[in-house]
Amino acid sequence: MTTEISDLIGSGLRNIGNMFLYDPSAPMLFSSGFFWLLFIFFLPVYALLKRSKAKMVLFVVGFSLYFYYKSSGLFFLMLIGTSLVDWLLSHAISRISGKAGRLAVMWLSILISLSILGYFKYANFFLWNWNLMVQGNFQPLDLILPVGISFYTFQSISYVVDVYKRRIDPTSSWLDYLFFLSFFPALVAGPIVRADYFLPQLKENRVATRENIFGGLWLIIIGIVKKAVIADYIAQYNDLIFNDPSLYTGLQTLMGVLGYTMQIYCDFSGYSDMAIGLALLMGFHLGLNFDSPYQSRNLTEFWRRWHISLSSWLRDYVYIPLGGNRKGTVRTYINNFLTMLIGGLWHGAAWKFIFWGAMHGIGLAVHKACKPWLGKLPDNWLVSFLSWLVTFVYVSLLWVFFRASDFESSVLIVRNIFIDFDIHQLPQFFEARMVWCLMMIALVVMHFVPQKLTDALGNIYVKSPWIVKLLVFVAVVQLVIEFMSEEVVPFIYFQF
After folding, report:
1. What does the CA dihedral 444, 448, 451, 453 come to, rounded to 10 degrees?
2. Catalytic center residues
């Protein structure tokens, strides 16, 4: 009996220990229970250490690196190495007086960062395409894409470029820079935080206010609802359509496309809400990353509202350096196209992402070319509605190429919608997918709620008594339990 109890205790301790080790099949996510268990213990320790900036930085860096280890294994060592190289080269840039020398060191840093990203993310893509050209016998490299590498690489590049342009001074402490690059709320899927925006906050070491804390909790609740309730539930039907589009009618396919259009917004903006909310609990502001993008009436407006941290990064570090709109009309169109092409390639190493980015680039160029004509149209509800409809349809159809497994499947999905569509199937579809349809309708309505009303709801929550906050929390937990999948579903942008 004693031996059996000892074995049972030993097995239990091993299982608990394994929870703290990296598991490739179950990376740690904001939507996982284990993360929130750790965060509950992290937050009071963080609050106690807040008065001592050095201790706070060391503690948060340690937690962030552990968080990354639980998300991506030993690749946390590469993150440490990247931060050290960037920090040393940024100091070299600040010490060199000659412009040519500073420029050379800046490009050295950028090339190192892009080489690491290129190897892990694009090596097999380029080798596969080279193999097609030379008719070789291609064997893909056994590569695992480190989680979040696309996000922290862009942060790294912007930091070095800003040091070169004298926008910021390099951090005096390497740990401060590692804190910025590894800050766990924004580490694996953004927002892409700028050093000139974040580092002054670290220097000030501001204590979270009551508004920060409860405003952060509100954003976390909203993010959980978007991701764990809405996105994960509607994804179950969307996946059926995209996994085998040949089995479904045009109307069913259209519903799947509309579903994914809403799913990717709820999934990604939900992650951003949670990341921004977690940072607010710690007294840091990450900035707005989504601003009701599906309200946009043209593609230019869409990219000012969708993934704002990426679109502003591409504008400042790709579009403007290419010449922006300073080199004539034709060059402006080309710069728009190239910027979005790079944005598409950033999303993934596949021709479908390149096509997606290229079509957005073409759409932006067409919108700019038509601006003089569009400016002559009357500013009424019909013009606004048609502008919104064209933009929404264009964006939604391009999401097909973003989501589908290959280009052929994308074409089949679009073809099904236009060739095999029958509106008379709608009542039958609604009856079969009633909860899905009601959730989609509610989502559309909520998306078009004025921002002032959304902000007012947040303010009401912040000022409400603790019993109201508790009831909201219990209601959200109940919703998650009701609609949750059998296992934790990774965020869509987790793979980028």
Report:
1. -80
2. 347
Query: What is the overall mean pLDDT for the chain?
Result: 87
Residue 315 corresponds to which tokens in the numbers above?
Answer: 């504008």
pLDDT digits (tens, 9 = 90+) for 41-78: 999 999 999 889 999 999 999 999 999 999 888 899 99
pTM metric for this prediction? 0.90
Taking CA atoms, 128 is separated from 123, 136, 141, 248, 409, in Å, by 9, 9, 10, 32, 20
Which tokens go with 389?
Answer: 């409809």
- Which of 125-134, 349-358, 441-450 tops mean pLDDT? 349-358
In sequence order, what are the residues at sequence separation of 6 or more whose Cβ sits closer than 8 angstroms to the Cβ of residue 287? 191, 193, 197, 276, 308, 309
Q: How far apart are the first and last CA of the chain?
A: 51
pLDDT of residue 421: 83
Residue 7 has pLDDT above 60, yes or no: no
CA-wise closest residue to 29 among 180, 224, 199: 224
User: What is the average per-residue pLDDT within 408-436?
Assistant: 89
Tokens of 330: 């034709």
Angle at the Cα of 292 from the Cα atoms of 289 and 294, rounded to 5 degrees: 120
Listed residue (262, 32, 313) closest to 321, CA to CA: 313
Task: Burial-class residue 82 by CB neighbours within 10 Å (0-12, 13-18, 19+).
Answer: buried
Q: H or E segment at 209?
A: none
Q: Where are the beta strands (DSSP E) in 20-154?
A: none
Instruction: Give yes or no for a contact between 78 and 146, defined as CB atoms under 8 angstroms apart.
Output: yes
DSSP run (H or E) holding 42: helix 33-49
Which residue intervals of 306-406 are DSSP H helices? 308-314, 320-322, 329-347, 351-374, 381-403
In the chain, % of residues over pLDDT 70: 93
CA–CA dist 318, 443 (Å, integer): 34
Spatial neighbors of 259 by CB under 8 A, at least 6 apart, are 234, 235, 237, 238, 241, 436, 440
Greatest mean pLDDT range, 274-278, 370-374, 417-421: 274-278
Local structure of residue 205 (DSSP, 8 states): T
Q: In this structure, are residues 229 and 446 in contact, taking their beta carbons and an 8 Å threshold? A: no
Amino acid letter for position 315: R
